[in-house]
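Hi Q.,

Before the meeting this afternoon, I wanted you to have the magnesium ion prediction in hand. No need to reply - just skim if you have a minute. The sequence and ligand are here:
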Amino acid sequence: MVFPDGTEALRDVSFGVDKGEFVTIVGPSGCGKSTLLKIASGLLEPTSGQVHADRDQIGYVFQDPTLLDWRTARGNVELLAELHGVEAGERRRLAAEAIELVGLNGFEDHYPKSLSGGMRMRCSLARSLTLKPPVFLFDEPFGAVDEITREHLNEETQRLFRTEGFAGLFITHSISEAVFLSTRVLVMSARPGQIVAEFDIDFEYPRLPELRFDPLFAELCGQVSQNLRGSHA
Amino acid sequence: MTERNAIQGPGTVRSLSQRLLPPMILGSGFVGIWYFIAYGVLEPRRRFLLRPPHEVIQVGFLEWDNFSLILNSLWSSTKVAMMGLSIAILIGFMLAITMSQAKFAERAIFPFMVTLQAIPILAITPLIGFWFGTGQTSRVVVCVIISLFPILLNTLFGLQSADSGLHDLFTLHHANRITRMRKLMFPAALPAVFAGLRISAGLSVIGAIVGDFFFGKGDAGIGQLLRKHASQLAGEELLAAVIMSSALGVTVFLFFGWLQERSIGRWHETTTGAG
Ligand SMILES: Nc1ncnc2c1ncn2[C@@H]1O[C@H](COP(=O)(O)OP(=O)(O)OP(=O)(O)O)[C@@H](O)[C@H]1O
Ligand SMILES: [Mg+2]
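Predicted structure with the ligand bound:
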């Protein structure tokens, strides 16, 4: 992928994500991860190469919250169902469920200007949870929330992945988050981004929070970290 | 102690006095200078150039014949301003929406709008009179020309201000043009639209008075009155009419500030102080 200004963001990236797979990409900042998701979703046309994906209904959590300032948290969460023509009662129900899931209850009637940065991100997450998409793209969704909330949201994401069985493509800077969630972790190099390493994560689902203290978990994190370090050079 | 208590009184009273006190101080200073010029600087026989404040109030406001004349003229100018502003809003919205939908339209229309805005209104008043006569129509036309640009520019800017991430979101979920307009671009444009409205509303009052100054046929307004008083050297009435015209401008400005606060105050951080 080469941008009009000559920036080459991605080079020779090729991989697949099957239904029931949760693939996470880690890589240095600016290596083209967001660009990759935009290409995968069809928002950006790649300068070369192709994407094969079911794009009818894509769940996409952007790196920024991208909320509508003029809608309350509830109104924002209802937006996607509204765009897909879901009728009002059902919309309400879906929104309430998603808000509950991300722990925003009590703030339904707040406008984005009076939500904290982390709360806005959770609102954005809740928004994409209202649809049950077969393909789910996450662009560093938990970068702005605190550690404990993050772990909690990780567990929720995992639960959702197991119940919905979507094909997940997840971007993060956190190695432990990557290992905890994924069936596969891809490591990208600095720009132009290329995939330099691939790890299959074989832990059984459901993965319990305690898994994070498992020696094997720590070893995998170490390996990913080492590759990531190498990719910076 | 009592002074302290007074200062620490209920929040609203305190903030109200905090807001009102500075302009009141400046205002009295202004009246003071006015008196000083009228009595200290001007010799009695030249005092007609600036009548002292109490005489302006006496003659311009308290003599009902004079004041009712001012009110009548003001009302007919207000009508011109409202008509001009409504037309400017209508044209401004339509052009801005067209321009926001097609880059081609924006490129085509923009230079003409800038040109129109750059023409000094005084230079084209003869033409306007030539085409539209010297009555109501011409007054309204002047008003439209003067107040069109801010509303058009701000609306266009507002429509284009929606975050690109939000546009991506709408694209991803197959929203059509209308939905995108209704649920994303219009609401996103509102703060800028109100900013434009406030400027245009103020300008529409100026436009109505300027138009009236040049075109006096029919139901003449405050511009003709100013002209008449000036030619008769009627200083008190002239000043009273000027004060009332400014009052009209301020009222219009405050009204749109209030409307803005009511419509979008809940979700938008308003930065302007007035209203
Ligand atoms: N529209 C664009 N035009 C030109 N260059 C762009 C554009 N979008 C992104 N880039 C460049 O492409 C590179 C990759 O950007 P991208 O946003 O994909 O990085 P990222 O891996 O998501 O980084 P981060 O982890 O910081 O979010 C960057 O160097 C960026 O400057
Ligand atoms: Mg990114």
